[in-house]
Write a structure and sequence with these properties.
- With 303 residues, the chain is α/β, with parallel strands linked by helices.
- It has one domain: Alpha-Beta Barrel (TIM Barrel), CATH 3.20.20.
- It is 38% helix and 16% strand.
- An 8-stranded parallel sheet has the order 9-8-5-4-3-2-1-10. A two-stranded antiparallel ribbon has the order 6-7.
- The radius of gyration is 18 Å and the shape is globular.
């Protein structure tokens, strides 16, 4: 396998990790965030500016944004679902935005109440909002491989979405395995096709471990030279608009796997495990991460 020297992990536990959880207090989220920043992670998806009625767990987006000055060395981004959300995020002080476009109409209608084409039509305006404040716009293409409503997503739909997004101002792309169904072979095929279509733009990946293939998919992507990878402390998270979409890949498992393979992540593994303990306490239930439940890389937990 041909691994790069390093990768750039984005911690998504504060947004994707919490959106399926029962709402927790903002001060609890700030304790989680403080532990996550201590891991050394460079990029953190901190919240989402969407309708509080649709995602009540993230209704405190403005309150969270108001506290980010406490971590001046971290780079924060926020997810938005439309132009209104983009303006809210920028007004709250965020500069880097992530805009989700579902490659399948079924998920797009359930998630944003519009078709894929209609969602793509907003890329230009949302990118402009980010660019006007000196930020960047990343388009996350959800259901890039499979949709819970429409079945397998045609690769041509993803490639077309990627090309249109870049033409309209997207600075970066991320391919999302929204329901955790993809396997390495399909990762290689689609990532290769998208990178060929938009060679000047960085293409990242976002996997779930719902069916146990998430880490294998990370290796497949890294072997292709992908260096932008999403992960969630403890493996928390999922999509409330995609039935069965639980189980993000766990940050600590990605860090352990890549570090043991000679790939630098910039994160301190013990600090990530410590952050997972904070997350577990605040969400109030056991985490899915195998590495965390085992007690770490070298300390099997006693029965």
């Amino acid at each position: 396998m041909r691994f790069p020297e390093s990768v750039d992990l984005r911690e998504v536990g504060m947004r994707d990790g919490l959106q399926l959880e029962a709402p927790i207090a903002t001060d609890a989220k700030l304790r989680m965030l403080d532990a996550i920043v201590a891991t050394g992670v460079r990029r953190i998806e901190v919240t989402s500016f969407v309708s509080p009625s649709a995602v009540p767990a993230l209704a405190d987006a403005d309150a969270m944004a108001a506290e980010l000055h406490n971590w001046p060395d971290a780079s924060f981004s926020a997810l938005v679902a439309n132009l209104k959300g983009a303006h809210r995020a920028v007004d709250a002080g965020l500069r880097d935005l992530e805009y989700v476009v579902s490659a399948s109409d079924g998920h797009s209608l359930a998630n944003a109440r519009r078709t894929t084409d209609q969602a793509l039509a907003a890329v230009g305006e949302i990118a402009s909002v980010a660019h006007q404040v000196g930020g960047r716009c990343e388009v996350i293409i959800a259901t890039a491989w499979d949709c819970p409503f429409d079945g397998r997503t045609a690769p041509s739909r993803v490639v077309d979405a990627a090309r249109r997004a870049v033409e309209d101002g997207a600075d970066k792309l991320c391919l999302g395995d929204t329901i955790g169904t993809v396997a390495p072979g399909r990762v290689v095929s689609l990532v290769s096709a998208v990178r060929a279509a938009v060679p000047a733009v960085d293409v990242g990946v976002h996997f779930h471990n719902t069916r146990g293939t998430g880490l294998a998919c990370v290796l497949a992507a890294v072997d292709l030279g992908v260096t932008s990878i999403d992960a969630s402390v403890g493996g928390v998270g999922g999509c409330p608009f995609a039935p069965g979409a639980s189980g993000n890949i766990a940050t600590e498992e990605v860090v352990y796997m890549l570090t043991e393979s000679g790939v630098a992540t910039g994160l301190d593994l013990q600090a990530v495990l410590d952050a997972a303990a904070v997350v577990e306490k605040e969400v109030g239930h056991p985490l899915a991460s195998n590495l965390y439940r085992a007690g770490g890389p070298n300390r099997p937990r006693g029965r």
